[in-house]
Amino acid sequence: MAGRLTVATKFLVISDTHDFEFGETPGAPHPLQLHMSRVDVLLHCGDLTQVGGVSSFKKALRMIGSIDAELKLVIAGNHDLELDKVYWEAQRDDNGTPEDPEDHELAFNVMTGPLAAKVGVSYLNEGTHSFTLKSGAKLTIYVSPYTPAFCDWAFAYEHNEDRFNGPHQVAAGSTSIATNPIPDDVDIVMTHGPPRGILDRCPQGNMGCDNLLQAIRRVKPIMHCFGHIHEGNGVEVIDWKKPATDKPALRKTTEAVHRHFEEDRTENPYPEPFMWKDGHGDRTLAINAAIMTENNRPGNAPWLISLDLPRSL
Hints:
Blueprint: E1 6-14, E2 39-44, H1 54-65, E3 69-74, H2 85-89, H3 102-112, H4 114-119, E4 121-123, E5 127-132, E6 138-144, E7 147-148, E8 156-157, E9 161-162, E10 175-176, E11 188-191, E12 201-202, E13 205-206, H5 210-219, E14 223-226, E15 234-239, E16 250-251, H6 255-260, E17 274-276, E18 283-288, E19 303-310
Parallel strand pairs: 1-2, 2-3, 3-4, 6-11, 7-8, 9-10, 11-14, 14-18, 17-19
Antiparallel strand pairs: 1-19, 5-6, 12-13, 15-16, 15-18
């Protein structure tokens, strides 16, 4: 952002909390603790619950509400079943009876209603959103809860379908179904799932999305945060100056990164912030912020990130 006025902004990034509650396991310490410093923006990248449920959404809101942040932005994930209206209306119980369509409205009203307002949560639908903080920082963020189809979870699309690029941007072999493609001028992208090859590896292999990677390569945001693949928790610095190959050009070579991360393993400096000053077109900071581990225990710390946003004019 050379030549533009910027404002240092502190983000707390979490994902895949899956019904987590503060203090739910007394005597069993975990990295996500209540006594954390105030941040400007909290980002939750989806999977608030394990299998949805109105009471679980309320519990998730109360958990997020206890975190001290000026702006709290939340999206759904594939486990947040009732929030996907199309998915929910297609479901049948063991007797073949349709699920109650009102459950979607109840869940959506919880996430956008009085309790959400009371705890300061903004539940975001797929698309681009802009906010101005009290500091004068302007945040433009694209969000999407959708991930490639896997088993029978919500917010799914087929692997050859592209939700993130328009018809003139789509890769060969894919078909654009984008109603809200990622625009070129966003600061941050928040999706539930990862791009292909970036913090997406699990026992089944690399489970990220090729079409999302194509969009991130096109947009080059300052930061891309996600979750979904619990085993992928960590950060990667994507260096867009490196020539494109079959694998994404991933590097952890800048001095700032080496101050915080070992050569072969990404170490989270939490509760200290990671100072990200190296983006703005050349590099993107990718964060898999899944709180749950591969064993579905809340063993991963949140990511505290400090980065510069443009000042509102």
